Amino acid sequence: MTHGKLLCVDFDNTLTQDNVQYWNDERPQPDEAVIQAVREHYYDYGLVVVWTARPWSEANQVASHLVEWEVPYHGIRCNKGSGDLYVDDKAISPERFSTEGFVEL
């Protein structure tokens, strides 16, 4: 059960299949397996925040894709940083999330 558990999920290369050059108007493609896992978490009364490294100027575009792809969410956060690698004790890969859902680490 994920009642009340907060899921912070990345946008590019997590909810999408690849990183894209959005500043050059490249269009991302959704990763349906990860999106389905987000839906399951949301509808099990979990909280969902899409947290992207994109700047706030891209928030409307991200929201537009989420609506188009029917990704339920409670909020969007931008500017998490622009690292090439993130090390986090609460991180799981998109593949693991899409097969196992929300897991306690």
Outline the structure in words:
There is one protein chain. The protein is built from 4 helices and 3 strands; from the N terminus they run βααβαβα. It is of the alpha/beta class and 105 residues long. The chain has a domain at 1-51. A 3-stranded parallel sheet has the order 1-2-3. The protein starts with 5 loop residues before the first strand and ends in a 5-residue tail after the last helix.
Summarize the structure.
The chain is an alpha/beta fold and 105 residues long.
What structural class do helix, strand and pairing data support? alpha/beta
Mean pLDDT, to the nearest integer, reads: 90
- Summed up, the helix count is 4
Helicity, as a percent range: 25-40%
Care to count the β-strands?
Answer: 3
Which segments are poorly predicted (pLDDT under 50) over 5 or more consecutive residues?
none
Specify the overall morphology: globular
Q: Characterize the biggest β-sheet.
A: 3 strands, parallel
Distance between the termini: 14 Å
Strand content is 5-15%
Question: Over all CA atoms, what is the radius of gyration?
Answer: 13 Å
